[in-house]
Amino acid sequence: MTKSVTTEISVEELRELDKKHFLHPTTPIKEQQVEGPELIFESGKGIRITDVNGDEYIDGVSSLWNVNVGYGRKELAEAASEQILKLSYGSSFFNQSHEVVIRLATKLASIAPGDLNVSFFTSGGSESNETAFKIVRHYWKLKGRPEKRLIIGLENGYHGVTMGTTSATGVPEFKNMITEIAPGFLHALPHQTECEKGDKSHPNYERSIRGIIEKEGPENIAAVILEPIQGVGGVNIPPEGYLKSVRDLCDEHDIFMITDEVITGFGRTGKMFGVEHWDIVPDLMCVAKGITSGYVQLGAVMMSSKLRDELADMSEGPMFHGFTYSGHPTACAVALKNIEIIENEGLVENAREMGEGLLKGLKYLEENHKITAKARGLGLMAAIELFKDPETGEGFAPELFAAPAVVAACKQRNLILRPLIFGGMNAVAIAPPLISQKQDIETIIEILSDSIKEFEQKVL
Ligand code: PMP
């Protein structure tokens, strides 16, 4: 029996226990039940992760786009351990507080765009977005305008898996699990800059955010939510001017603009926050993932003190919203240290520089393979798409599972990437930790190239 490298329990036993007792997130249950888990991780260091068989992989997607500073950072372990020994838990309900949550809120205020200087803490991305939806609806209710409640998201947008965030999500597969979404969520076509600027003659006008606002009436719309760059929906980078056109549209109609920076926050795109590429400031900004580089669970919703003060002036009694782990001391201590690492090691700049190399590499793949097109990326958030015929845009038959096959071929070569296959797309996402170096990027491109070649030989 193969023994796990560092534990007494055998790999076979682990697999059986996994099958018996563990319901995995976003995994085909039957596949897990028949085959057991594909990988069982045991340790991680830098950009590499090792499984229980002792096989080492480059983590080319920072796990779930979240391990920004890489694995195994002693400073983060120490920050967590010191905080647990000092104050293991402290509630911030009922107007209580503790030092590390105050310091984190202050730090976030100093690095967030524009006037976003107040944070509400959560345990992750879904909770952050869900909180933002409740805050905007609460605001309009307090204003005596409860009908101003509709929330417009974008098709291919991803915002989480709670009821509200599932409903705001525009990737249809995530709605398959349920029969009914939460009321009051609508979806617009992404990246329709001309429509958002007011071009009513455009064929997509009715499906644009502006077209939907016009149809539903701005008096019924509470907010628009969008990712600066759509992640799960395909690493879709907006055209120049798009985010500004949405910002102006929201201002014009007194509608909140919520940006979901759960992936794009904390340096991923080569700026501290994604919106900084387009110089706009949202009304509410939701973050998670990279805030702690995935070492512990944390998310936040940021807003201006002006908005907070308006809520204060209109409120009577508490805002009945809060999670037991809102502002958990360990999470806050790790976040502070994580942000310090990102700043001290120049990881935002590194992501920008390495991202240029990564995109160059992907463009090279595009030119040198018959089935690749649409290489795109900003910082270390990138993707490339696979087509049977890139010239005509003809895709591969779904039964070929093109992107999953290429990703599986990468895994054979000890590189973990992620297929993005929603809506018939066959994209491969590449988003390594922000500490990646030139050699790492070259290795990723080389392995991806060999894996694409292997798939090409099978299907062409
Ligand atoms: N928003 C975006 C843009 C995300 O990518 C994700 C997670 N992939 C979420 C929200 C949900 O975050 P969580 O899984 O932490 O709830």
UniProtKB/TrEMBL annotation:
Signal peptide as annotated in the record: none
Keywords recorded for this protein, A-Z: Aminotransferase, Pyridoxal phosphate, Transferase
Transcription regulation as UniProt keyword: no
Annotated TM spans: none
One Gene Ontology term of the molecular function aspect: transaminase activity
Keyword Isomerase carried by entry: no
InterPro entries recorded: Aminotrans_3 (IPR005814), Aminotrans_3_PPA_site (IPR049704), PyrdxlP-dep_Trfase (IPR015424), PyrdxlP-dep_Trfase_major (IPR015421), PyrdxlP-dep_Trfase_small (IPR015422)
Family recorded in the similarity comment: Belongs to the class-III pyridoxal-phosphate-dependent aminotransferase family.
Name under which the protein is recorded: Aspartate aminotransferase family protein
Organism: Siminovitchia terrae
